[in-house]
């Protein structure tokens, strides 16, 4: 069974996003052990201090993780769903657990990006950090289905 950690900032406050995340996590149970680890959102009012505070929390959690950290960030490499499936399969084939990192509302510091093996983007568009979690889980599920050849991805 493939081990994946999704490391993200804060809890989901929107019921419909939370329901979507639960749905994809449930679907993924058959093929991967996905653990969602949430670090607390910063209470800082200043955007830069908030980003720095949350990034320090993420770095601390990343340091405890075994395996490769992959940051999801708007500055990352573009991938199609098929390319992501191939990348994910190479991570699985290496036999190391993967950790995907999603920042908070103001993103991530360069230090977090440098601490990752790879940085990829979900889209050229910007999503809320809650939406990014849902979109990532759908893409994770899609990539597993692509690899299995189920027809979920057309």
Give structural attributes.
45% helix; Alpha/beta knot; alpha/beta; single chain; 154 residues
Concise description?
The chain has 154 residues and is of the alpha/beta class.
What does this molecule look like?
With 154 residues, the chain is of the alpha/beta class. The protein has one domain (2-148): SPOUT methyltransferase, trefoil knot domain (Alpha/beta knot), CATH 3.40.1280.10. Helices cover 45% and strands 22% of the residues. Strands 2-1-4-3-5 form a five-stranded parallel beta sheet. α3 (81-94) crosses α5 (129-148). The longest helix is centred in the C-terminal third of the chain and has 20 residues, at 129-148. The radius of gyration is 15 Å and the shape is globular. The mean pLDDT is 93.
Considering the protein shown, what is the CATH homologous superfamily?
SPOUT methyltransferase, trefoil knot domain
Give the overall form. Answer: globular
With strands numbered from the N-terminus, the spatial order across the biggest sheet is 2-1-4-3-5
Give the rounded overall mean pLDDT: 93
CATH overall fold name: Alpha/beta knot
How many structural domains in the coordinates?
1
Number of helices: 5
Distance between the termini: 25 Å
Q: What's the gyration radius in Å?
A: 15 Å
Question: What is the helical fraction, as a range of percent?
Answer: 40-55%
The SSE order reads EHEHEHEHEH
Strand content: 15-25%
Task: Annotate the secondary structure layout.
Blueprint: E1 2-9, H1 15-28, E2 32-39, H2 47-63, E3 68-77, H3 81-94, E4 98-102, H4 110-114, E5 118-120, H5 129-148
Parallel strand pairs: 1-2, 1-4, 3-4, 3-5
Helix pairs in contact: 1-5, 3-5
